[in-house]
Automatic annotation (TrEMBL):
Residues 1-116 form the C2 domain. This is Protein SRC2-like. It comes from the Eukaryota. The keyword Acetylation does not apply. InterPro entries: C2_dom (IPR000008), C2_domain_sf (IPR035892), C2_SRC2/BAP (IPR044750). Pfam families: C2. PANTHER family: C2 DOMAIN-CONTAINING PROTEIN, INGRESSION PROTEIN FIC1. It comes from Forsythia ovata. Keywords: Membrane, Transmembrane, Transmembrane helix. The chain crosses the membrane at residues 155-174.
């Protein structure tokens, strides 16, 4: 294994358990609440639960997610776990509230408990507490080594996108925006085998 091309990572397992005492955001119909999870609000890291159709203001999900996080994202305070709750609506889903917590704080707390923990955190909306509580459990896996992005993803793939964009301008007379990221990926979503 070529150590120069490896990066230290940890698996991060998260289970959203439930929420309690949510504020009512729908006046007439039943509240069907779901959660969106991301790191720092980055859409590329976003996963969501199914909507609870029965619990209304006290939803229960017991929904598990799995990520791979680069070790430097865990040991520094910058990376935030963001969990936002929404109520489904045909006229547009309604925002209920959210929690933000540092991955480093989660790691430090779990480390003293054998690598896993259960938490109940107060939810906020517009920086004010809502009186609602979000319950979740999580654990960090052992350190693992993963390969960094190879030459294809770093150099050739962006070059291919640029060629496609130029070809679109020349042949169609239309600038087709193509995006790619050169940043090193800190968090990856891992697929869980759902039963």
């Amino acid at each position: 294994m070529d150590k120069k091309n490896d990066v230290l990572c940890r698996k991060f397992y998260l289970t959203l358990i439930s929420a309690e005492n949510l504020p009512k955001v729908r006046k007439i119909f039943k509240s069907k609440v779901y959660a969106k999870v991301s790191f720092g609000g980055d859409k590329k890291t976003e996963q969501r639960t199914k909507a609870d159709k029965h619990g209304e203001l006290n939803p229960v999900w017991n929904y598990s997610m799995k990520y791979t996080i680069v070790e430097s994202g865990i040991i520094h305070y910058g990376l935030q776990l963001v969990i936002k709750l929404y109520c489904k609506s045909k006229l547009g889903d309604r925002y209920i509230g959210e929690i933000h917590t540092s991955i480093k704080d989660l790691f430090d707390y779990a480390y003293t408990r054998g690598g896993s923990a259960n938490l109940s955190l107060p939810m906020k909306k517009s920086h004010a507490e809502t009186g609602a509580i979000l319950k979740f459990s999580y654990r960090f896996g052992e350190r693992i080594q993963e390969k960094k992005q190879g030459f294809w993803r770093k150099v050739l793939l962006p070059g291919a996108f640029i060629l496609l964009r130029v070809a679109g301008i020349v042949t169609l007379g239309v600038d087709v925006p193509v995006s790619f990221s050169r940043k090193h990926i800190i968090v990856n979503i891992d697929k869980l085998n759902k039963k």
